[in-house]
Records
---
Amino acid sequence: MLTSKHNPAIKQIRALRQRREREATGLFFIEGIRNVTEAVQAQAPIEQLIVAPDLLRSQFAQDLVEQQRQQAIPILEVSGEVFASLSSKDGPQGLAAVVRQQWASLADVRPDQGLCWIALNAISDPGNLGTILRTGDAVGAAGVILLGDCTDPYDPATGRASMGTLFSQRLVKATWAEFSQWFGQSGFNLVGAADSASSHYRDYAYPQPLILLMGSEREGLDAEQQAQCQALVSIPMRGQADSLNLAVATGVLLYEILAQR
Amino acid sequence: MLTSKHNPAIKQIRALRQRREREATGLFFIEGIRNVTEAVQAQAPIEQLIVAPDLLRSQFAQDLVEQQRQQAIPILEVSGEVFASLSSKDGPQGLAAVVRQQWASLADVRPDQGLCWIALNAISDPGNLGTILRTGDAVGAAGVILLGDCTDPYDPATGRASMGTLFSQRLVKATWAEFSQWFGQSGFNLVGAADSASSHYRDYAYPQPLILLMGSEREGLDAEQQAQCQALVSIPMRGQADSLNLAVATGVLLYEILAQR
């Protein structure tokens, strides 16, 4: 059992807090019984489980660890103190994992999958992204296409906000140019959200297969992106604010699309 | 101009980061041109403006400060460094304010105001609360009733998530017992959200006047709260997750209520 916070293996896991390190290794860190269970159930490529026997009280979780051990998944046992040094939770549960990132490509984005795909342009807030993954899971979306300079879906804050749904949604990363080129031959319909759009989001019949395109928190969609869309829809607003939170706006639109099926 | 971070006036403002201090003084701190502008426009009781002339570039904001000076609002000028010690932003804009909290009472909750009222039971996340205030503003809700042990709406994180809508929504704080007693004679209809509810949220005709009751992030509504509701509605979920983010669920329901008007 590792008892030193300064052990190189522990330092390496802790380094996964940095996006640069996650990108260099293709790995990420998840913690908590719920998230690790979701990873196992989704058959995510777990490289290593991290277990603190002092902290891990749940029989369910102990059985899960045993099961993984029998499937030859490497298990790193650490002291409660070392575990706490890896954790960003107040009351760490004693179970975490290092998981290999899984990226799909645009070629994997096909018309016969789920309610729709969600494309996000330059989303910057990890909490918003995690919340959108959670809503995407709830409506049965296929996955999220991250366009341009987006926050990292493997950021721990995204994982927390996704409440274990990170593994249920496929993830694709592309530049706008790559997306735009692929889109022409994809067979998909692209519908974007814009405050200025004349179509009320409830009066529009969402075509299939569909990619719902949402702009960034600050800038929305630019003129070129709006031009690429078959249709732009707007969500009415009656108050002082000039926009909704991005995850709320995406949720309102996804539930309208779901209601039309 | 104050140039010391240790000046007692500055320390007192900084102490408003603590909920205890906010509750003891009845004051709170807002920052940023947008938030201060919203406070002025909403005629919120501003006790003091805090201005860092080194940082405040915007002519619009400088005019706003001048206008407030003419209306005898106390103005505290501070150095950029002192301002940064008060700010929780990376690039502080040099404008902030200390504002008196405004609480309405249950007696102020009347049937003729806005789309509906939103009652939140034991909401714990300031970001969720701020996002719900922002959505409440967008749909034209009257305000938010905070039931039981809720996060503080005057927490800076709530203010940030509310995007300046903190002043457009009335705020009421009550225990469940107080609310429950008042409710009987209020003339309102109470509709709650629950995963287990048999009414699909789109098939239900929301009565007027309406209070939409949402449970806490972790626990939802308890049996007594559910029993108090005329109706319970559920939002369908198709995926792994067993719930939506609270602010997303509230947004989906509020936009359904708006669509029915």
---
Amino acid sequence: MRFTTDTSSDGIREQLFVLGEIPGALWTPDGPARPRPLILLGHGGGEHKKAPAVLTLARRLVAECGFAVVAPDVPGHGDRPVQEEYDRIATANRARIEAGAEPAPLLAEFHALVARRTVPEWRAVLDAVQRLDHVGAGPVGYRGISLGCGLGVPFVAAEPRVRAAVLGLGGAIASAAEAARITVPVEFLLQWDDERVPRAAALALFEALGSAEKTLHANPGRHGDLPAFELDGTLRFFGRHLG
Amino acid sequence: MRFTTDTSSDGIREQLFVLGEIPGALWTPDGPARPRPLILLGHGGGEHKKAPAVLTLARRLVAECGFAVVAPDVPGHGDRPVQEEYDRIATANRARIEAGAEPAPLLAEFHALVARRTVPEWRAVLDAVQRLDHVGAGPVGYRGISLGCGLGVPFVAAEPRVRAAVLGLGGAIASAAEAARITVPVEFLLQWDDERVPRAAALALFEALGSAEKTLHANPGRHGDLPAFELDGTLRFFGRHLG
């Protein structure tokens, strides 16, 4: 794990790093090193480790909860090289959708393909980050919506260190079997008028989660219209389960 | 409005009252009289103004938010006389359900009948209670689930003083048109495995609400299994909209 920058502002330390092929960002509270809860953030499609939505949530989790937060770039995103295979599939999918194919199953299949890389990558990121004195081996949470949900479901299912997860804006089609293996508390976000994820598919994914404690939060609006108060809810949810 | 008892414990004043034919309970914080937000609680079927669930929520709203809370007995409940008409309908409904009829439409029809009395009654309760110096004419919220949702939808639709509502464990069948007239923020509670309210009917009621801001909170479990953390959510919701 190689750090490329190390800065601090408003009591929040930000370190950019590269772990093997994976560029990532780590945020921690300034002050004495001690073990603390760690949230891994999975960014959305087209976003990256320092996209505005990621940065806002990361800084709030550090400042308001005292947690550590890590965000890796997904392959083909941020500082990672273009993935010709992914671009080829995306182009082919666009053509199939224009020819009348349902977008949701194509997207789910694509997420499953990318997750075969991100699940082991994110586990390696947890290994590396939890060895740092200012993070330590505290409880882990995961938060990802949209692409971050498609990649998060197999990650949370596979990784026993994750003790609570916020997921959403995703559908069930490829991941129902993995969702059933998730048993930790989940807060699941659904946009009632989501133009990308059919409502029935999102409800089916919530239904498929194996967790005894899971809460669906549905709000009116399209895929990108998540209300700001749901960020407050995410902080409270992680505070309740990891704090 | 005639008060029959006036007691105080743990900083919370409780007054039982009778307004015309309506017995009710009023809770307010001890201390100087001033206008404050007021929550009207609609109790569940078979419950009454001082049922444990009503009392717990009322005392928390007073102690943690500084609000006033009023809970009237629904006709045929608590200290009110038996309603032979309601009992006759309930008996007939049970027979029809045993003979194979769907329970949900029968329940919805019954709630609509009772609401023709409770809507004007609850408006009169607001009039009377808001004239008291220790309540005053602050913003009003409504909270009711199950029977309290069936009666609450027409009440919130009719009463412009209500500025935010927590509803749930109810279905759309009789009240979709009234739900569409509700425009205030709503938090809507749904039990995913509700044995009394079909999931599709509950989702349809959420869908029918005319509010620009409305959030569905769905949790696993049966009609009576609402998780305790949803009470925290109710307090935060009213704090955000009325506080």
---
Amino acid sequence: MKTLEKASCQGFSAAGTACGLKKNGKPDLGMIFCSVPASVAGVFTRNKVQAAPVLLDKKNISSGVCRAVVANSGCANCCTGKRGVDDAVETTRLASGNLGVDAENVLVASTGVIGKTLDVEKIRNAFPRLVDSLSPDGFGAFAQAIMTTDNVPKVSAVQAEFEGQTFNVVGAAKGAGMIRPDMATMLCFICTDIQANPNTLKRVLRPAVDASFNRITIDGDTSTNDTVLLMASGLSQVAANRCMDLFQQAVDKVCLDLAHMLVKDGEGVNKVVTIDIQGADSDQDARRIADVIAHSPLVKTAFFGEDANWGRLLAAAGRAGVPLDPYVVDIFFNEVQMVKDGMGLDMEAEAMATEVMKLPEFTVKIDLKMGKGQASVLTCDLSYDYVKINADYRS
Amino acid sequence: MKTLEKASCQGFSAAGTACGLKKNGKPDLGMIFCSVPASVAGVFTRNKVQAAPVLLDKKNISSGVCRAVVANSGCANCCTGKRGVDDAVETTRLASGNLGVDAENVLVASTGVIGKTLDVEKIRNAFPRLVDSLSPDGFGAFAQAIMTTDNVPKVSAVQAEFEGQTFNVVGAAKGAGMIRPDMATMLCFICTDIQANPNTLKRVLRPAVDASFNRITIDGDTSTNDTVLLMASGLSQVAANRCMDLFQQAVDKVCLDLAHMLVKDGEGVNKVVTIDIQGADSDQDARRIADVIAHSPLVKTAFFGEDANWGRLLAAAGRAGVPLDPYVVDIFFNEVQMVKDGMGLDMEAEAMATEVMKLPEFTVKIDLKMGKGQASVLTCDLSYDYVKINADYRS
């Protein structure tokens, strides 16, 4: 399995353009088109408040067939009532007219401010030139068009070989706030040319999402628009059911790559930190502790301050509501042990731990020394810029 | 029942001094002394990681009798192993020697950095002058000595009358980070001269804490040192069991006052916001939604930005994991309705809501229109200063 510099995938073309939904004139409308009916599976937000495009997609995806995806930034089309659903449906109709495909086989996604209605007129006007610019190399332009507070477009592509034949998996995603386990204001679109039916895709997508997007957190908020789609054109010579492990690995790899990019490019993020919990009574306990630490503002501001304040780590672990003996806990910053049996080591250890925290990425390992449960979560620091971005977002 | 400007309570004297635990030379050691054996009850942190003074107090309080409290700032004496407990015990012995009371009747409390050992020598040296300065008017000085990142000392005092006799309730508390429902890095010491046994005090303290300190949040972190003590000298002419409602009201009032002061003086706080949830299926559901909203970084940064971003409120409510119909929800900023049936109202409403958000204190009311469940939680904004204070705390 190899990573591809140039993302492409047989059957799929993509494009992005500026249609005026964003006030600043930046790209805000993207499309992915499949030249044949693609199989599709999706994972959507569990928030009780769900945006219109999520509601529509959940209906349209039931056929298992997708021909095109239309995604816009600049407006979440959420909390927009019946009008919001009408606007989402109208978007699929416009795509249908421009592409010559069934409207029911078009999926839509929106991201941006909640509560603003979608200006479909702008989308209508932009569609002809968007369709004209569809290209097998268009994933970068597509990724650019779905950015909100992201700083960089996010694309990951891998190629895998099975019995002398190759297949591709290409994904494009956007963050960058409202990211947490259980999905996010995260949109992610994954295309593959492997041969796979919707059920196979579903079986592969759920664990891939659980091991990647559901293990990252930027601010603990969950979006109303989270959507991950996996589409298969079937145009390669490889059948997924003959190499399920390899296919799973390829989809996992793309999801993990994109998840890592999301955290790294999170709002105001300077540090990407892996919280690695070992020795808990169960994996579930370990996950619970990892989550509490990953969300703790005191821990996250200490990361920002490059302060090896291990007491905050222990205090956060202690309020996770799971068994823990503070007198046996060990804590490491990368390879540097800072805490042994619940007590801080010397100034030298602290100086070395502080050096580790100056790195842009590091791991905090906490060993509870109770059992075999383990979990890891990817988090980030909490910085001035996070506050600035989110205090000023709408102004 | 009236609020007293000058806090005092028969039998109790208090004092504060600087003993050198804080590098900056500010007051860091406080004492409350009771001239007679006081009844006592306490509520302590539920964090699994508990500081040495908490462990010792839980033992000493079992007698139901307290003669003195020693509280220090500048060092939490937490994650300090067996040495930490020895240091806490030694502190009670030193107080015992200076005050002529049993060491077992001395309670201790510490707040400050976790993982640093307590320099008992400094406490030993300071005790004689601390005891000399004990005064019925010393609650202000005591409150000053327990401050960490607090900006102002926090004292609340009320006097109530029952059948022509008065009794007093005086409380001193400190915040200001690690504050959340389920207690906090909060220390709170309440003295009363009512006649009450330890069981009566316990019965009154728990609901008072639940209705006050357990309903506030600054950053969602729970401290390892949280302690609330209620002590009764019995030197007034009023017996608590003859006026339980009135006594409860008086303790509630002091706790609510102090809780409000804690949020107002929270780290980097510019806005004190009441999250008021109405119309949930149950009070428990309402509380769950209020908590999620009160902790949401996106909501809190919007408060800081004075941005009536109601979409974030709805999105946070939606991920609380309780039943909610987004199409019927109403949202108000004080009296200004911003959302009706899940949709934002016009620009005029938004302009008025934005005016409300410019106030230093306001209420966000969310009516789910499903049932009769309700709850309210006091929270605050998330500002640059919160990040600054917590990134730099130890440097």
